[in-house]
Design a protein that fits this description.
This protein is an alpha+beta fold and about 180 residues long. It contains four helices and seven strands, in the order E-H-H-E-E-E-H-E-H-E-E.
Length: about 180
C-alpha cells in the first residue's frame, strides 16, 4: 500500500537515515535510468564529503525514509559558490504521491536561503518522471549532452548515454 502524502514529514538528512538513503540510491542505480554511479558511497562519511549536508533532506513516514534529495557543489571555485547539483530519489512505494515534489520544493526554499542562485540537474532523457518532476519545480532544459558518459554497471553496461541538463535560477538570490 502506498503511504499517504499527508503523513510524510520533511527532515534534514542525518546519519540515522543513511542505511535507508543508501538502499534507495541502490535501487535507483539498479534501474539503469538514474545515474552513472556504479554504487552508493560506502559510508556516511564518504557521503558527507561530497554533499552540502545542511541542505540534504529526507521525506519520512514515521521513521521510514520514503525519498531523499541532496545537493552537491558543481565546483569548489568561489565564482560557482551559488551553483549546486540536485540528486533526488523516491522509493517505488512513494512514487506518484507528490513526495518528490514536496522534497524538491523544500530544497528550493532552503537553497535560496543559503544563497544558492542556480540549481542544476542532469537526467537521462528516458527518465520521464524525473524530468517532469524537475520541470514542475521550475527547472528548464538548457541542453542535451550527447553521449556524455558510458555506463559501467547493470543492464546498460558499455552503453553511451545522453544527459539532459536542467537548470533553475532563483528569483530571490543572486540577482543583484
Amino acid at each position: 500500500m502506498k503511504p499517504d502524502v499527508t503523513q510524510a514529514a520533511i527532515a534534514v538528512m542525518s546519519k540515522r537515515h543513511w542505511s535507508d538513503v543508501r538502499a534507495i540510491y541502490q535501487v535507483g542505480i539498479d534501474t539503469g535510468h538514474a545515474t552513472f554511479a556504479p554504487a552508493p558511497p560506502p559510508s556516511w562519511q564518504a557521503w558527507q564529503e561530497v554533499h552540502l549536508n545542511e541542505l540534504s533532506l529526507v521525506a519520512l513516514d514515521d521513521t521510514v525514509v520514503l525519498a531523499w534529495v541532496a545537493l552537491s557543489p558543481v565546483s569548489r571555485r568561489a565564482v560557482y559558490a551559488g551553483v549546486a547539483e540536485v540528486s533526488l530519489y523516491v522509493t517505488a512505494a512513494a512514487m506518484g504521491r507528490g513526495i518528490g515534489r514536496q522534497l524538491l520544493n523544500a530544497l528550493v526554499e532552503r537553497s535560496e536561503r543559503a544563497n544558492i542562485w542556480t540549481l542544476q540537474a542532469g537526467g537521462f532523457p528516458e527518465n520521464l518522471a524525473s524530468l517532469a518532476l524537475h520541470r514542475g519545480a521550475g527547472f528548464e532544459p538548457v541542453g542535451l549532452r550527447r553521449r556524455i558518459g558510458k555506463m559501467t554497471c547493470g543492464a546498460f553496461t558499455g552503453r553511451w548515454r545522453d544527459v539532459l541538463l536542467l537548470e533553475r535560477r532563483s528569483s530571490m538570490t543572486g540577482i543583484a
